[in-house]
Each structure stands twice: as C-alpha cells, then as structure tokens.
Design goal:
The protein has 370 residues and is α/β, with parallel strands linked by helices. It contains 16 helices and 14 strands. The strands form five sheets. Strands 11-9-13-14 form a four-stranded parallel sheet, with helices on one face. Helix 7 packs antiparallel against helix 8. The protein is elongated. The chain starts with a helix and ends in a 12-residue tail after the last helix.
C-alpha cells in the first residue's frame, strides 16, 4: 500500500515536469515551425507578402523588425510602441531617416536584435517578441528564421521608391498584423489623395522644362555626376527627367559631358552630394558656369529621401517642392512648408521640418560653390 502511494506520487511529479517542458519555446535548428506558447491564447492566420500562411496570436503586442523598411512602415502605422528590439543602426542618432529621428528616444534604448537585415537569433529570442516582421529586402529565409526562433515570421515587401504597389501592400499587411486596419485605411486614402493631386495638377502640362537631378547617393555619396533615372519624386509629377533618356534605371554616374550637351533648364541637388559638388566647383568652376541653369540661378534643393531604402514622407515633400518649381502656375496655391508639415504629421505623427531647416536641410534655391 505504501509502495503504491509512493509510485503514484512519483508519476504525478514526472507528469508535472513534462507538462511544464511542453509549455516552453524550443529554439534552434530543430524547433518546430508555427509553434506558439499556450500563454498567448487565441490564434489567427494571415497570408504574408511571400504568400506564406502564418499562425499568429490573436492580439499582437510585441514585435521586432528585421531589414530595411520593416520598422519604417511600422512607424507609419503608429506601431512603434509595439517594438521591443531594433537593428544596430537604429541606435545611432541622425536625421537621414525621420521615422528614427522622431522616435530616437525610444529606439536608442532598446536591445539590438540584428544588423542590416541580418537577425541575431539569440537576441531576438531574449526580447521575446510575438512576431518577427521581416523585410523582403533582408537576405534571410523566413521559414528558416521561424524554425530557428520558434517565433512567427511575417514578410512585408517594403519599397525603395515613392508610391508603388509594394508600399501600399506593406501598409495593408502591417495593418492586419498589428490590428491597425483603421490606421492602414486612413494612411492609404491619404497617400492616394496625394498621388492623385500630383497627377491631376500636372496632367495638362505639355511644355515641361528639362530637369537634371544630381548628388544622388547610392552605395555612398556622389557629386554632380550622381543622378537617377526614374527618380521617384520627379516620377510622381511627370517631370522631364533627362536621365530617363539614357536607357539606365535607378541611380548611376553619368558622363558630365552629356550634362553639358543637355544643358538642362532646371537642376535639383540632393543635399547628400552638395559638399562634393562644392568641392568640385572649387576645382572646375568653368564647367558649372557653362550650364545655363547655374548661370541663371535655376538650381534647387532636394532633401535626401533615400537612407536604408526610401523614406516616403521625405520623397513626397521633395515631389511637392519640385512641382512648385517646375509648374509654378499649377502649384501656386501650395506653400511648401505647410504641405511638408502636413505630410510629416500624417506619416510620422509630428513635424520635424523645423529641425531639418535648423540643420541646413531646407527647400530653397541653391548656389553651387557657396
């Protein structure tokens, strides 16, 4: 009788240990995919940007973002308070990525969980997110990452231009993931309104000035030779971008003799390349004075919008400023500071344009060489 009672107690203890072990997240290469701790309660499924069906907690309150664009668009969806870890470059101060600038007090104190799209698996597990938001730009297999961490991975497309299908799809997916469908709908409607406004105002313009944009960054800073075909802000306003005629796509270095041949009506300078352009001006002033736009004062600023892919709010402000220069009649009612503030408030929740101005990044004419 005593032996039977002892065996029963031992069996109960073993069952208790076994059940406790079943409730733990198993990480590592052999961990099961789609495993959710019992404590997370009800679950749901969603189809991510890669067409994967992912099982998620019904309510998502803790996430990490891996790869360019994932955290940026999460901030656009007002989901920054859900983030429990960031990639290392988010802890470095700067104004090149405004979503980071306005949330820096929070992001700078969070644990680092990756670098440039490379996840730190152990660090991600340590901060215990419910979901990993993975940018399609990250060179990581989402199923492998999900298996190694035991945490659901949702892929979002991100975007490296202005308003394209990938941008809108990223907004939709993050709205569904974070339970922010109303915010996603509000943001989508606003962006579509801007897109339509720019297109409608410029649709009837037939005699468009020729445009050259320079100082465009790609794999580092570039000077006057750094330009971009199908430059996002100019595409939104249907501008006559001379780089589009080269057969190139994206950013590239052009032969400066070609710019002399073109002799563009208007030149836009990306602030990222302005210091290099000024240095070159000091050595080659005759080249610049040979350009009619320089000689007649038709050189204007663009605030750099591409840092770790495209920053949508800055690109849209760039588009409106360029439009006020190229189409003054059609955009006569647009005050660029007011419009920029509106765009920043909608996407970022605040308006950092006064801070940009104080730092020298302002929508205004530029005098090369000064």
């Amino acid at each position: 009788m005593k032996l039977t009672r002892t065996l029963a107690l031992l069996l109960a203890a073993l069952l208790t240990v076994g059940l406790g072990a079943c409730g733990e997240r198993q990480a590592g290469p052999g961990a099961a995919e789609d495993t959710l701790p019992e404590s997370q309660g009800e679950t749901r499924t969603m189809v991510d940007g890669n067409g994967r069906t992912v099982e998620l907690p019904d309510t998502v309150e803790r996430i990490v973002c891996v790869g360019v664009g994932a955290l940026r668009y999460t901030c656009y969806l007002q989901g920054q308070d859900l983030v429990v870890g960031v990639e290392d470059y988010e802890t470095q101060a700067g104004m090149s990525r405004l979503y980071n600038y306005v949330n820096f007090d929070r992001f700078s104190t969070l644990p680092v969980i990756g670098t440039n799209g490379e996840p730190f698996v152990e660090e991600i597990i340590a901060v215990d997110p419910q979901v990993i938001v993975l940018s399609a730009y990250a060179s990581v297999d989402p199923d492998e990452l999900q298996s190694r961490t035991g945490i659901p991975v949702v892929v979002v497309p991100g975007s490296d231009t202005t308003l394209d299908g990938k941008a809108y799809e990223t907004i939709r997916l993050l709205g569904e993931l974070c339970g922010k469908e109303d915010r996603a709908a509000e943001l989508t409607q606003y962006l579509q309104t801007l897109e339509a406004d720019l297109a409608q105002r410029t649709a009837g313009v037939t005699d468009k000035p020729t445009v050259y944009v320079c100082g465009v960054s790609f794999k580092g800073a570039h000077g006057f030779e750094g330009t971009e075909a199908f430059y996002g802000p100019l595409e939104l306003i249907g501008a006559n971008n001379l780089a589009n005629t080269t057969g190139q796509t994206g950013a590239f270095d052009i032969d400066l003799e070609q710019v002399l041949v073109w002799d563009p009506d208007v030149i836009f300078v990306d602030y990222n390349g302005l210091s290099l352009i000024n240095e070159d001006y000091a050595a080659n002033p005759d080249f610049y004075h040979s350009l009619t736009a320089v000689a007649e004062g038709r050189v204007y600023a663009q605030i750099s919008f591409r840092s770790s892919a495209s920053n949508l709010e800055t690109a849209l402000a760039d588009a409106y400023y360029a439009a006020t220069i190229l189409y003054p009649e059609q955009f006569a009612d647009v005050d660029i500071e007011t419009k920029t503030g509106e765009i920043f408030e909608m996407l970022l929740g605040t308006n950092p344009y006064p801070d940009l101005k104080e730092a020298g990044y302002v929508f205004a004419p530029i005098t090369i060489g000064q």
